[in-house]
Amino acid sequence: MSLLTVLLLGTSCTTARSNVSTTKSNLEELPPDVTVTDSEVPLAGGSENLIGSWKSACLIPDEKSDYAEQHYFVFYANRTTIHTRETFYKKSCTGSSDTSINNYSYTIPSAGQINLTDLVTGQTLYDIYQLQTGSLLFGHGFRNTLPYPATAGSSDSDRMSNLNQYIVYSKVE
To answer: How many structural domains are present in the chain?
Structure first.
């Protein structure tokens, strides 16, 4: 198994060549023990509905693309989350994939805002989110439309400003 470092949203993560069944088992693992100082504070604005497992559909950026991606988030009540991205070098989300896994802590500064802090690098993505019945949207992520938003999420004043309608997460029951 070859390992390489990739860049995702300005944070480093480890990528391993694996198959889909291995990736799905990663979603069931608990995150590493972390200390989050404000874990007893209630989550803001109904954001307790974030807790649980979420996954996107198989995403192909355009008909000329020779790859597909599928994304997963698992949010825990202890204010940690795991993001998994599977990249497939074909037009379907089956078989072998490159799998990137990021461990984050998260805070909800106000309803509709989320800060994701990478537990390895310490970098924070200042994002937005929207919960709808059974679905979850963020501002970050690749899209199949241009232009990309003017904001990049590098600080609170540069917080993502537009919801990404391309990567739609569905609640996994």
So the answer is: 1
- State pLDDT tens for residues 35-61: 334 444 455 556 788 999 999 999 998
Q: What span, in angstroms and rounded, lies between the C-alpha atoms of 45 and 111?
A: 5
Residue 39 lies in a domain: no
SS3 content of the chain, % helix, strand, coil (to 5): 10, 40, 50
C-alpha 140, offset from chain centre: 8
Domain span at residue 114 reads: 3-29+44-172
Residue 58 and residue 68 in contact, taking contact as beta carbons nearer than 8 Å: yes
Residue (of 91, 113, 88, 92) closest to 100 by Cα position: 88
> What length does the chain have?
173
Say if 119 falls within a structural domain: yes
Q: Would you state the structure tokens that stand for residue 43, as one six-digit string? A: 């989550």
pTM value is 0.74
Two structure tokens written together for 110: 């106000």
User: Burial of 1 by CB count in 10 Å (0-12 exposed, 13-18 middle, 19+ buried)?
Assistant: exposed
Q: Write the Ramachandran bin of 29: left for phi over 0, alpha for psi from -120 to 50, otherwise beta.
A: beta
Beta bridge partners of 18: 97
